[in-house]
Amino acid sequence: MNKPAYTISDQIALLKHRGMLFKNESKARRLLNNISYYRLKGYWWDVQSDTVLHTFRSDVYFEDIIERYDFDRRLRIILFESITLIRNIIAHHARLWNRSMVKRPSMQLNNPAGAWLVRLLQPVQLNKPFAIISCMVYLCGFLQDSQDIKSKIVNLVNSYPNVPVYKLGFFNQWQSEPLWK
What we know:
This protein is mostly helical. The chain contains 7 helices and 2 strands; from the N terminus they run H-H-H-E-E-H-H-H-H. The longest helix has 30 residues, at 62-91. The protein starts with 7 loop residues before the first helix and ends in a 22-residue tail after the last helix.
């Protein structure tokens, strides 16, 4: 059974009824015209005071939800660029070995929830594939069968004990980091 479509005015009225605040309602109207109400729903889920009635905490602004959406959109582009770069290198049979990465993740993400890297990477390591590989392993950690990519990389490195993986940015005892355990 399909729900009836709400107009943008109806959507704003519903959000206000549920307690969401607006700093600039006309801007919100333009944004809701371009970004689906249902797409934004995932960004306000955790700021509801009641997930059955879908009411919001008293300090929730629509603009804060848009900021979350924008952050997530930009993060996805950054990650996509890094993954695309690696894919292109691999697809063209180019080397990853000792490559300085032009596009690389920002390691200022410093240790989210203790599952990232305890040791901060040195500037020279940020230019190497290890930083991107670690980001991909971290992100894949949220997927089913996520241990597969991590175990494949660990097994690969272990299978080549004479290869100096530090040339790829891997540091001594990298396997003892929480991300790689």
